[in-house]
Amino acid sequence: MIDDAELSRVKAGYPVIWKNKEAQPKLAFIGCPHLSFAQLVDWTQKVEEGLKASGREKVAIPTVFTTAPAVQKEFQKTEYYARLQKTGVVLSYICPLMYMNNPLCGKQPVITCSNKLRTYTSAKYMTNGEIIEAITKGGK
Asked: Inter-axis angle of helices 128-137 and 37-54, to 10 degrees?
């Protein structure tokens, strides 16, 4: 049976393969696979709410939201794009997996809510809520 306890057990078994397991994250990737338009809107709102709650204006950890070029183009036409820019989050169509597979980049302590990126790179997995807290308040 898959329940919260089982999900917690599996997550607790994920290895952190950073050289320094206690390092502060240097980058957060959200969107692997790439975010949809609706997900971009949702994440923008969550980041804004997290920043407001923590009394910050900009994210505490450099953060990249990734999406397909066509989705990025449409998103940039909306009010949400300007709102996202105010938070300090970067919107890109880069492939986080290819970025992390670069030997220099792969050594960085990166956090993600993508189990795919966690599986194939050294990125540390965090839940959506944990990511929001880390990028809007700072911390691990």
From this structure: 50
Task: Report the alpha-carbon distance of residue 13 to residue 30 in Å, rounded.
Answer: 21
- From CA 120, how far away is CA 100, in angstroms rounded? 9
Q: What angle do CA 121, 126, 129 make, to 5 degrees?
A: 150
* Strand order across the beta sheet in which 90-92 lies: 90-92, 63-67, 27-35, 110-112, 124-125
Structure pTM? 0.91
Angle value at C-alpha 56, between 62 and 126, nearest 5 degrees? 45
CATH number, domain containing residue 110: 3.30.499.10
Residue 62: count of CB within 10 angstroms of its CB: 16
- How do residues 33-90 score in pLDDT, each as one tens digit? 999 999 999 999 999 999 999 999 999 999 999 999 999 999 999 999 999 999 999 9
Residue 17 domain-assigned (yes or no): no
Query: Could you tell me which residues come within 8 angstroms of residue 102 by beta carbon, excluding any fewer than 6 positions away?
Result: none
**Phi and psi based region of residue 88 (left: phi greater than 0; alpha: psi -120 to 50; beta: remaining):** left
